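Hey, quick one: can you model this chain's 3D structure?
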Amino acid sequence: MITLTGHLICSGEAEAALVRAHLPDHIRLTRAEPGCVSFLVTPTEDPLVWRVEESFADAPAFQAHQTRSRASAWWQATCHIGREFQTRGL
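Sure thing. Here's the predicted structure for all 90 residues.
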């Protein structure tokens, strides 16, 4: 199993608004991917930070997710937002 944990860190309210606008579709699409075991992106006490917890069945499923998400509206809107992630199992 491949897991990714960490944080999505916005620099201000404009970035946080982008996350709120695009996150529901990103979650829906990711959870529908083959090999997605779990995918949670939850707000923290800081309104500019979200906790990210992902699990995929194997490396091919995780890589497919990375490829799909990099070509998505989510990535187009949020690629400049700070990310601090740790991946285990690769």
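One thing worth noting: The mean pLDDT is 97.
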